[in-house]
Design goal:
Helix content: 40-55%
Number of strands: 9
Bound molecules: 5'-deoxyadenosine
Strand content: 5-15%
Shape: globular
Order of helices and strands: HHHEEHEHEHEHHEHEHHHEHHE
Length: 352
């Protein structure tokens, strides 16, 4: 048996490889390897989640951002970005609509908007939990202090998404201005975990200057940090950023990595991202068939959807939430999966 297939079998039983071995798997990606990875990944996912797909209602609460990440469409230097910020009432009504549609997790995502003080956010989170005590609240609002994370947790937030973006300091510096560091990112991730959040890290596939060695370091970081969730989607250029002329990441490589991540942590909550559905028509379905088990449909008001453009061409910016959920349920059914009404917490027990 060749080395690639041997490594895949090893990963499936030990859930661990060295960074060099991860790199070998990526450098030697081929059809046979993809098929085997997919088969193992789907089997591992099924042990914990069966054929269920968890959905999260994504509410994009603000596109103001104090940061200037070179890849991101809502970076502060983008003067073409029409800025908006949702009010508390608007956010609560998105949750109400989402609840009626069957969502039991709300993800509040936004740029690093200084007007989101701890007081505002804590009041918002506790109101959502009061209105919908059976729902989980996930925050995705960037880097904050330990104290701020702690207050948010104490106000009732359950989960926090903060992609590490790249596990290489040198690559991190090529994607961000020097006000942002991987060191602080990692500190935030560790703080979140220590406080008690279910935590998600993640990275973009095919971001500018990314090498297979960088991706291998990402996989090693994921193995070591052992997050509850992991967001991995292709980089997609945005026309008003310094990276406008770079190519989008490859959907197949993204699916290959989703399978590997499933084998690293069999019960991880792993989304088939909107970015994957944007670079490839049936990208999200392919993601699920590669081992993902989460989808994050957009619940933001239609009037702001186009303004929250991290990258160009984002899908379902024009569909009513109800319509896009209906379409999603149908397409999941067509590949043998079922969207369930559930908070969708991480499952630590193998299903009977
Ligand atoms: N392409 C793909 N993903 C992007 N993100 C930001 N900009 C882009 C882009 N151009 C991702 C980042 C961030 C998450 C919210 O969106 O990884 O953490």
């Amino acid at each position: 048996m060749n080395k690639t297939l041997k490594l895949i079998k090893k990963l499936n039983t030990t859930h661990s490889l060295t960074t060099d071995e991860y790199q070998y798997l990526i450098d030697n990606k081929n059809e046979k390897a993809s098929q085997l990875l997919k088969k193992y990944a789907v089997a591992q996912r099924e042990k914990y989640y069966g054929k269920s797909v968890f959905v999260r209602g994504l509410i994009e609460i603000s596109n103001y951002c104090k940061n200037d990440c070179y890849y991101c469409g809502i970076r502060k230097s983008n003067l073409n970005c029409e800025r908006y910020r949702l009010s508390k009432d608007e956010i609560l009504s998105c949750c109400k609509e989402g609840y009626e549609l069957g969502f039991r997790t709300f993800v509040l995502q936004g740029g690093e908007d200084a007007t989101f003080t701890d007081n505002f956010l804590c009041d918002l989170v506790s109101s959502i939990k009061e209105n919908h005590p059976d729902c989980a609240v996930t925050l995705s609002l960037g880097e904050r202090s330990y104290d701020s994370f702690k207050k948010l947790y104490d106000s009732g937030a359950d989960r926090y998404l903060l992609r590490h973006e790249t596990a290489s300091d040198e690559h991190y510096a090529l994607l961000h201005p020097d006000t942002l560091t991987l060191k602080n990112r990692k500190k935030c991730l560790n703080d979140l975990k220590e406080i008690g959040f279910q935590v998600g890290c993640g990275f973009m596939v095919g971001s500018p200057f990314q090498t297979t060695s960088h991706i291998a370091q990402d996989l090693n970081f994921i193995e070591e940090f052992s997050p509850h969730m992991c967001g991995v989607g292709p980089f997609i250029p945005h026309k008003d950023t310094p990276f406008k002329n770079y190519n989008a990441g490859d959907a197949e490589l993204c699916c290959y990595l989703l399978s590997i991540i499933r084998l690293i942590k069999p019960n991880i909550l792993l989304p088939a991202t909107t970015a994957l559905g944007t670079v490839k028509n049936d990208g999200r379905e392919k993601g699920i068939l590669s081992g993902a088990n989460v989808i994050m449909p957009n619940l933001s008001p239609l009037s702001v959807r186009k303004k929250y453009a991290l990258y160009d061409g984002k899908i379902s910016t024009g569909d009513e939430s109800a319509q896009s959920l209906y379409n999603l349920k149908k397409s999941m059914n067509s590949i043998g999966y079922t969207v369930v009404v559930s908070r969708g917490d991480i499952n630590t027990n193998i299903k009977e």
